[in-house]
Specification:
Elements: H1 2-30, H2 39-60, H3 72-91
């Protein structure tokens, strides 16, 4: 059981890293550090959106942007961290 919990915890950590990378890239695009018209940048953005949109979309129905800032990544990271800790505490 501990091996499965460790695997799930590692998967959650990787998904949180993907969310953080997506947020960082969106900031770099907003501040014009990365050109969003670049084909490689578009591919990376598309890949990250495909990974995060299935989780973001249901939450965005209930949590609108605040002052034009989307706080969905923060909510998802907090929820995933809570669930991971709950799982690990149940196993230990």
């Amino acid at each position: 059981m501990y091996v499965i919990a460790s695997f799930i915890s590692m998967a959650v950590d990787i998904y949180i890293a993907i969310i953080i990378i997506q947020v960082a890239i969106s900031w770099l695009i907003a501040f014009d550090v990365i050109n969003a018209d670049n084909e490689k940048a578009q591919n990376l953005i598309g890949l990250l959106k495909k990974a995060t949109d299935p989780v973001y979309k249901p939450i965005q129905k209930y949590i609108p942007p605040i002052g034009g800032i989307d706080i969905t990544p923060i909510v998802v990271i907090l929820a995933l961290s809570f669930l991971r800790n709950l799982l690990l505490n149940a196993v230990l």
